Amino acid sequence: MMSHPHITTAFDEELKYLTRRISEMGGQAEQMVADSVRALVNSDLALAQKVISDDAILDDAERQIGEKAIVTIAKRQPMAADLREIMGSIRIAADLERVGDLGKNTAKRVIAVAGSGIPRKLARGLEHLAELALIQLKEVLDVYASRSPEKANSIRERDEEIDAIYTSLFRELLTYMMEDPRNITPCTHLLFCAKNIERIGDHATNIAETIYYMATGAQPQGERPKDDMTSTLGSVTD
Amino acid sequence: MMSHPHITTAFDEELKYLTRRISEMGGQAEQMVADSVRALVNSDLALAQKVISDDAILDDAERQIGEKAIVTIAKRQPMAADLREIMGSIRIAADLERVGDLGKNTAKRVIAVAGSGIPRKLARGLEHLAELALIQLKEVLDVYASRSPEKANSIRERDEEIDAIYTSLFRELLTYMMEDPRNITPCTHLLFCAKNIERIGDHATNIAETIYYMATGAQPQGERPKDDMTSTLGSVTD
């Protein structure tokens, strides 16, 4: 019995370790995404290369968090909220690793687009999309620190705004492609970049749902907002 | 001590449960991908709708496998190979859930493409890509049953073939878009579909790496094959 407070403290330290590593991952993922979009609009190949190599840091972090989480579960046999806390860490780390991948995928396309130069209006559209996705990611990481289920629920609803901007960017890119066949190849790469950024919003939504689950043990109420409406778009010239 | 054989048996049952559920998920994911491509090339909206609603089954399966895995770890405190076995189940279930998502994402685009009709040559290209991705997925699920690290390593190398076909399909789609602006919107959707199928190969590669890790406790040797080479393609008309 005497050792019980000690065990609790060690367990708390392990939870704190997981929380700290996830916050770090969140900051790194944000940075990668911001850098990838900056590299894209400025045709900055060196910055793109940095994002591509930074991805390994997030991959390692996810693996380490997962292993630490599993060892903690095996050692402490936590129940209920404590167990959900650790399971949530595994899921959030996986989502952040995916966000890093999306930044890397955007960075990989910088070289293909660099030659053509991106029209000012498109660049601003991409920057705006990334800005919203990054705000959502930042907010969800703040909610992660507070563990508030109410705040987690309100972030979920934000995803629709990102999707609306993605859809208008998608239409705009198609218009450029139709105007001049020489725009087709670079705009195709930009379409994939826009899709990468839009999907960051989905991961932020996933994380918000996981935080809700960690705090309450339940899935959030209500329908999840629709993602990417462009899949049902016919020809934009109709 | 008397209860020890009983505990071992119960643990074995839990591992068998995880293995069985993952094999089921694998079969469902394969079916979803095959159906989504069939729906796409035949403009079969009803089949597309079925794929979209089937996705919930894989989402639930992943959640249930994850929860069962965590409860098993907490209850049994497995070490070494047993622990890797359970951690591997969580990872493989996550990859299969993503494969289902990719099938769903393809199915969602069926309606956008249905009006235009897909040229025979493109349809065959997509079918061929899907065929290769499904062979790879099927083989990796067979290796999962055998847990052979050697076989897991040989599957990893197969991914390059899929990437080569994806790249040629990507170029072909751009050519169609350049020939006639009316092809741009449907071909854009097909580009995303091709990308969805190509990414199935990446998940099969992930699963092969996880199986290697489960069997040996190490990451596979050698560089992971490059994914998607189209990100460095400049204009295809150059």
TrEMBL record, chains A, B:
GO terms under biological process: intracellular phosphate ion homeostasis; negative regulation of phosphate metabolic process; phosphate ion transport
Predominant localisation class: cytoplasm
Pfam families: PhoU (PF01895)
InterPro entries per the UniProt record, alphabetical: PhoU, PhoU-like_sf, PhoU_dom
GO cellular component, as recorded: cytoplasm
Keyword flag Ligase: no
Function: Plays a role in the regulation of phosphate uptake.
Subunit structure: Homodimer.
Protein name, UniProt field: Phosphate-specific transport system accessory protein PhoU
Gene behind the chain: phoU
